Amino acid sequence: MIFCIEDEESIxxxxxxxxxxxxxxxxxxxxxKGFFEALQQERPxxxxxxxxxxxxDGISILxxxxxxxxxxxxxxxxxxxxxxxxxxxxxxxxxxxxxxVKPFGMMEMISRIRAVLRRTEAGYKDKGKILQMGALELNxxxxxxxxxxxxxxxxxxxxxxxxxxxxxxxxxxxxxxLLESVWGIEYAGExxxxxVHVATLRTKLGQCGSYIETVRGVGYRIGGDV
Length: 226
Ligand code: CA
What we know:
CATH class of the largest domain: Alpha Beta
CATH topology of the largest domain: Rossmann fold
Number of helices: 9
Number of strands: 12
Bound molecules: calcium ion
CATH architecture of the largest domain: 3-Layer(aba) Sandwich
């Protein structure tokens, strides 16, 4: 289910029609009020959110979604007009998963939605079974890891590190957070350990090693561009 918040009826109808044609269930809302009511009943896979809306605007709606634990993880794609609105929205860094710049084509909308869903749902697919991201797979039960179809031998720490990253696609972890999760609290401060293990992990994963990104000045994340 995809929720679509757009006050212009003709655009909203076209979006719903196109989404249905692409195999997605979709519901449209003309403002935040109806949307938040529906959200009580159903959790959508993705929310398409216009910025200029009557009543509460899209920026405020996104902030509310992100501030509540039960809705914070729902992917949001924002629709913005070109120019000052776009600049403002990008400047605010609201944490939307993607931005569509109006006017956008319906096919572009569908492909961008598919990309966001691939990215955000990759790590959640069959939770407890196999974690998958692009050409990378990790089985938390058997500890099997494969990259590009090739089995990869990891140490226990490397496996744990990769698993934490893959379980939280796109989330940025600081070195201290990773240290604590993988090595335990007594290693606090030994952040070089994390860098060394990430470097080894990247090498062992071959092409898939590039999925692990260094976030300058912060730490690491996986899947930002997968
Ligand atoms: Ca609008």
